[in-house]
Each structure stands twice: as structure tokens, then as C-alpha cells.
Design a protein that fits this description.
The complex is a heterodimer. Chain A is α/β, with parallel strands linked by helices. Chain A has helices at 37-51, 68-78, 94-108, 127-135, 188-194, 235-244, and strands at residues 2-6, 9-11, 33-35, 57-64, 82-87, 112-116, 139-149, 152-159, 162-169, 172-176, 199-202, 215-221, 230-231. In chain A, the strands form 2 sheets. Chain A has a 9-stranded mixed beta sheet with strand order 9-8-7-10-6-1-4-5-11, sandwiched between helices. In chain A, β8 (152-159) and β9 form a beta hairpin. In chain A, α2 crosses α5 and α3 (94-108) crosses α4. The radius of gyration of chain A is 21 Å and the shape is globular. Chain B is an alpha/beta fold. Chain B is 24% helix and 28% strand. The longest helix of chain B has 13 residues, at 93-105. The model of chain B has no long low-confidence stretch (mean pLDDT 96). Classes of the chains: A alpha/beta, B alpha/beta. At the A-B interface, α3, α4, β7, β8 and β9 of A face α3, α4, β5, β7 and β8 of B. β9 (162-169) of chain A pairs antiparallel with β11 (176-183) of chain B.
Chain lengths: 249, 310
């Protein structure tokens, strides 16, 4: 079984992002970039399936700037076998990424695609579902458990109010939620090994995909700040304030 | 120009997230129709017809819609999409699951989790866990949108008298099947619909200790929530999680107990009307967003608070 794992390069989750003064976006110059944490969980899951003897090959793919190669090297260090970069400097939106991934899917014919449920930069939560629709294949989003058996995946999903389990026929798309697994730390020997693994570079035009953005960002602003209130000395004062001042109880 | 809102329902009744989405749809400028896709869901469709501002309800009632499988729901929406300028769903686990499939088939770049409608083609949405707000303009002919429910008031559940029209059900895609569901049973209101929320963090110390929050939640008729730290520590189930990676809430009153106030938690609750923080660390970031803070041991303060509320 072949697994395709799309990964995105994003501002590291520990970085407090700052909105640019000209309101064109957030500051990304000289900011630490990392693999989208949900995608890291996806790579880990794919590699575990390979280690369990269920998968035979794990292919990481990323779409974007040349610097996404670093992110792909991280995926290779976790344990992916080879990587594909779809290189472009056009701003990619989820529909365009889904189209690029669909083209890669058609070339590689994987049995399973595992990717993060959302990227922590644009928070769109769309790519996996769009890929499924473009390919006419089923999806299991927000996965917290994946079991592969007999040409199908049984997936437990995190939904509002609890968990649900569905069965999807392979080939299929799975998007990861936080509790699917805990990604391993990459070790230095594996980082060194990753440098020797194959990394292919293609362009959107090679895949016949038009990646022109559909959404125009008019401005990016800071959210309204909430100001700190008061510290109250005791419970009686708190209750009085909630009753008489805030009028919420 | 007409908008189609995809209803969130349990086949018997309409969930309030639908009402918030109807308000957003009305701001897009035209009539608002509602699709109820489910099985034996006539009661839900009738309830949708009563919501103020709705002019037509489409009812797709078939076994393949019983459990909300994304492939089947999306196919139904696509079949109806031709007549609509805007297609909106609440940004719930269900809406986020099926709507991008609709957008992809229609060749539309979806706009996710809008918090404001600036004009029929321009919307505001949070990015970077709510640390920035992007105003985006869509160049697609149709707009496909998920709505962050806390950004819009709920349309009143009564006052409307829309006709309910049955539509031909899209066939079962046959690609996925529903196995089962583990729903946490609770007498308390749902987190995303609650007027008051009592939330616990890592400071609670254990799952057992969350019990001291129960009398407080009972007294206030509140839902119970938790920070990601409390969930990661295994104190409570994941569906209690409030924050960027959990539920986004905006109740009238949010009481944060033993929660330090990590950015990811604040992103999920900072739109609450009134925030109360109870924490032993006077420097905890939660105090920078709280309207009322009380510094001290939660194990003393919470029982006192219950007593004071009478």
C-alpha cells in the first residue's frame, strides 16, 4: 500500500504572529517556519503504518516556494521514503492545492492520502475534503484512530459532542486531528539519511493545473483587543459585580 | 440573488448554529432558503420553516442522509446549487466536513469561518488562530461559505412561515458507511450553545477534581468546558476543549478556573461577553482578558462561590 502525505510549511506554532503595519498580511520575514503540526501527525501516522508492515511506501508532497524543501526533508527524516515539491511562488489557496494534489495522486496512484485537518496559518480546513471531491473518493476528516483492513479504512472521528466511526473504501483521504498520535522527535542520523532520499521538483504547469488565486485579500488587521478588567478581593464582591454590573447572572 | 443555508439538525429539531448561519446568509443580500438533508427529518424541516427570515425550506429525506456522511450530503447540495448565489453552512464539525467537497465540485474557493459579511462578495475571517483578521473578496461566481456561529446573532426560531418543498434525493455515493457514534451524554447545555460556561484547566490537577466544578455549573445552568492542557493531561474528554483546536465559544459568562490563558485557549473564548478568571497565579495571562479576576486557591474559591450564589 502506497501512502501520499501532503505537508505545508507554516509559521511555527510557537511564534506569536504580528500583523504588518501596511495591513497586507502577517510578518513572515525572519520568522521561524515549521511543518504544519497537523501534517506532522499525518507523516507520523503514515510512517507507523509502514513500520507496521501495512504500507510499503510513504511519499511526502508539498506545494509552494522552493523553501518547502526543508519541510519535505523533515518529513523524510520522520521516515517518508521520497518527496515531491510542486514549486511555485504564486500564493496558493486550498482549491489550487487540492487540484495540484489531485494531479500528483493521478501520477502516483496511492491507496491512502493522509494530511492535516487544517493549516495553522490560514485555518481553512478545506484541502483534504476538496481533494476527495475532485477525485470522487471518500474522506474521513478529524481522525483520532485509523485502522486499515481489507481495502477499507475504519476511522474514528472527533465530532461535536463525541466520536463517530465510519468506514471508507480505499483509495481514500484521511485528515488528522490532534489525538491521532504523538509525532516522534527526529534524530540526527535520520536527518542525515533524509538528505540522501530522492526529492523531485515539478511545476504546476507540468501538472496542467491553473493555480490563480480566487480570493483577494483586501486587508489583514489585528483583532480588537480585550482590555484587562479588575481583580476582586473576594467571592462576595465577584457575585455582586456579576449581578449588578455585568448583569449576567 | 438567493442564499441556501444547510441546516444543522438531529432529524427532529434544528440546532441553533443554523439560526446564526441564517443571519449571516441574510446579510448577503437576498432571500434565504434552508436545506434539511436527513432521514425521517420532516419535523426538523417544519421547525426550519418557522425561523424568521426563511422563505423556503428544501427537504431531502432519504436513508443515505441519516448519518451525515460527507459524500452524500455534498452530492445533495451540489444537485441544488444551480439556483443559488451563496451557499452557507455553520462551521461545525459537520459543516466543515461536507462543504469543501461542494466548493471543489463547483470549482469555487470556499471562504471558511467568516465572522462578518462586508458585502455580498467580501467577508472577514480570522487567521492564525484568531491573531489576525483577514478581509477577503471572492472572485468566484458562487460563494461557498462556512460561518463561525459566534460571529452572528441567532435568527429567532419563530416568526417565519416558509413553505416546505421536498426535493429529489441524490443517490448514495456508496463510498463510505456509518459504523457508530459515542456521544457523551449530559444533562447540561451544549458548549457552543450555552449561555454560561464553567471551564477548568491544568490547575484542576486531575479529572476527579473537575467534580468540584459540577455544583457551580448546576447552580448556573452552565455547560462545562476545559483547556487543551486539561484535555491533553487526560482529565476530561476532547469534546470539552475550548480553544483554537477545540470549540470556539462566546457565551454571556465564561468562568475560567485554573486556566493560565494560553493563546490557543484565548482564541476560543475571548469573544465571551463577560469573563471571570480564578487562578492562584496573579501573573497568569488569563487575567489580561478577564473582566473580573480573583486570585487564590480554586479549591477554596469555587465552593465559596457556590455558597454565595445561594
Amino acid at each position: 500500500m502506497k501512502i501520499l502525505v501532503p505537508v505545508k510549511r507554516v509559521v511555527d506554532y510557537n511564534v506569536k504572529v504580528r500583523v504588518k503595519a501596511d495591513q497586507t498580511g502577517v510578518e513572515t520575514a525572519n520568522v521561524k517556519m515549521s511543518m504544519n503540526p497537523f501534517d506532522e501527525i499525518a507523516v507520523e501516522e503514515a510512517v507507523r503504518l509502514k513500520e507496521a508492515g501495512i504500507a510499503t511506501e510513504v511519499i511526502a508532497v508539498s506545494c509552494g516556494l522552493l523553501s518547502c524543501q526543508e519541510t519535505l526533508r523533515t518529513a523524510l527524516a520522520i521516515g517518508a521514503d521520497r518527496a515531491i515539491l510542486v514549486e511555485t511562488d504564486v500564493e496558493l489557496q486550498p482549491l489550487a492545492v487540492a487540484k495540484l494534489l489531485a494531479a500528483v495522486f493521478k501520477k502516483e496512484s496511492p491507496d491512502l492520502v493522509i494530511l492535516g485537518k487544517q493549516a495553522i496559518d490560514d485555518d481553512s480546513n478545506q484541502t483534504g475534503q476538496m481533494l476527495g471531491a475532485l477525485l470522487g473518493r471518500p474522506q474521513a476528516t478529524f481522525a483520532s484512530k485509523v485502522v486499515i483492513e481489507g481495502g477499507a479504512a475504519q476511522v474514528t472521528r472527533e465530532v461535536d459532542g463525541g466520536l463517530e466511526t465510519i468506514k471508507i473504501t480505499l483509495p481514500a483521504i484521511v485528515t488528522t486531528d490532534l489525538r491521532l498520535n504523538e509525532p516522534r522527535y527526529v534524530t540526527l542520523p535520520n536527518i542525515m539519511k533524509a538528505k540522501k532520499k530522492p526529492l523531485e521538483n515539478v511545476k504546476p504547469a507540468d501538472l496542467g493545473v491553473d493555480v490563480t488565486p480566487r480570493l483577494k485579500t483586501l486587508k489583514v488587521t489585528e483583532p480588537p483587543k480585550r482590555s484587562a478588567g479588575v481583580k476582586v478581593p473576594d467571592v462576595a464582591t465577584l457575585v455582586a459585580k456579576l449581578k449588578n454590573e455585568a448583569k449576567v447572572i | 440573488m438567493t442564499a441556501l443555508v444547510i441546516a444543522e439538525h438531529d432529524n427532529a429539531s434544528i440546532k441553533v448554529a443554523t439560526n446564526n448561519t441564517i443571519t449571516a446568509a441574510a446579510k448577503c443580500g437576498g432571500e434565504v432558503h434552508v436545506l434539511v438533508a436527513g432521514h425521517n427529518c420532516k419535523a426538523a424541516a417544519d421547525a426550519a420553516a418557522q425561523i424568521a427570515g426563511v422563505t423556503k425550506v428544501l427537504l431531502a429525506d432519504a436513508p443515505q442522509f441519516a448519518d451525515g456522511l460527507a459524500e452524500n450530503i455534498a452530492a445533495q447540495i451540489v444537485a441544488l446549487a444551480g439556483a443559488y448565489s451563496h451557499i452557507l453552512a455553520p462551521a461545525t464539525a459537520a459543516g466543515k466536513n461536507y462543504l469543501p467537497r461542494v466548493a471543489a465540485v463547483l470549482d469555487v474557493q470556499q471562504v471558511s469561518e467568516i465572522v462578518s459579511v462586508e458585502s455580498p462578495d467580501t467577508f472577514v475571517r480570522p487567521i492564525y488562530a484568531g491573531n489576525a483578521l483577514a478581509t477577503v473578496q471572492s472572485s468566484d461566481a458562487k460563494k461557498v461559505i462556512t460561518v463561525r456561529t459566534t460571529g452572528f446573532d441567532a435568527a429567532p426560531s419563530t416568526g417565519g412561515s416558509a413553505a416546505v418543498e421536498s426535493v429529489t434525493a441524490a443517490p448514495d455515493a456508496g463510498l463510505s458507511s456509518f459504523i457508530g457514534r459515542e456521544v457523551a451524554k449530559s444533562e447540561r447545555p451544549e458548549l457552543t450553545a450555552a449561555r454560561i460556561i464553567v471551564s477548568g484547566g491544568r490547575g484542576m490537577g486531575s479529572g476527579e477534581n473537575f467534580k468540584i466544578l459540577e455544583p457551580l455549573a448546576d447552580k448556573l445552568g452552565a455547560a462545562m468546558g476545559a483547556s487543551r492542557a486539561a484535555v491533553d493531561a487526560g482529565f476530561v474528554p476532547n469534546d470539552w476543549q475550548v480553544g483554537q483546536t477545540g470549540k470556539i465559544v462566546a457565551p454571556q459568562l465564561y468562568i475560567a478556573v485554573g486556566i493560565s490563558g494560553a493563546i490557543q485557549h484565548l482564541a476560543g473564548m475571548k469573544d465571551s461577553k463577560t469573563i471571570v478568571a480564578i487562578n492562584k497565579d496573579p501573573e497568569a495571562p488569563i487575567f489580561s482578558v478577564a473582566d473580573y479576576g480573583i486570585v487564590g486557591d480554586l479549591f477554596t474559591i469555587v465552593p465559596e462561590l457556590v455558597k454565595e450564589l445561594g
